[in-house]
Specification:
- It is a single chain.
- Helix content is 73%, strand content 0%.
- The protein is an all-alpha fold.
- This is Cytochrome B.
- It comes from Arenimonas caeni.
């Protein structure tokens, strides 16, 4: 019998990371618009980004060991392909954004502190030109990530309200 729900771990990772990623996107926007709050927001943004990176690694490992339930057989082929490509893009951005942020901080000469007095080693050489490039890439990909999250939510709501095919319920555990 085919799996009809995501595992409890997959659901927990999905929803907790969704909340963290949304928070990160809004914190990122606030960081570039508020000089007063910027230092405080950066102090939240960096460790939260590293937590997302760690959870993305755990999530990818879990997904490989526990494949998601199959999409409905009557889902149009193009929609199934778009769903698959969007998931690949979401995972790529869950890895790329924290790594870009870490590299950007390194290139800017900023330390990335961890709890208990540890700091991450530099991921890139200190270089103002590289910092500028990475900062631009981080910002552009942040907007792309936000757009992809909105598309993901729209797709989920389409499954929940229009198709009513159980895809949304598989992730909520309400089947």
């Amino acid at each position: 019998m085919a799996q009809v729900q995501f595992t409890r771990t997959a659901r927990w990772l999905h929803w907790s990371m969704a909340a963290m990623i949304l928070a990160m996107l809004f914190i990122g926007v606030a960081m570039v618009t508020s000089l007063e709050l910027r230092p405080w927001l950066i102090d939240i943004h960096r460790p939260l980004g590293l937590l997302i990176l760690l959870l993305a690694l755990i999530r990818l490992r879990h997904r490989r060991r526990n494949p998601p339930p199959p999409l409905p057989g009557d889902l149009p082929r193009l929609q199934a392909r778009i769903a698959g490509a969007s998931h690949v893009a979401l995972y790529a951005l869950m890895f790329a954004m924290p790594l870009l942020g870490w590299a950007m901080s390194s290139a800017g000469g900023y330390l990335v502190p961890l709890p208990f007095g540890f700091t991450l080693p530099p991921l890139a050489p200190q270089d103002p030109g590289l910092y500028t490039l990475l900062r631009s890439a981080h910002g552009i990909l942040g907007y792309a990530f936000f757009t992809l999250v909105l598309a993901h939510v729209a797709g989920a709501l389409h499954h929940a309200w229009v198709r009513r095919d159980g895809v949304f319920e598989a992730m909520t555990g309400k089947r």
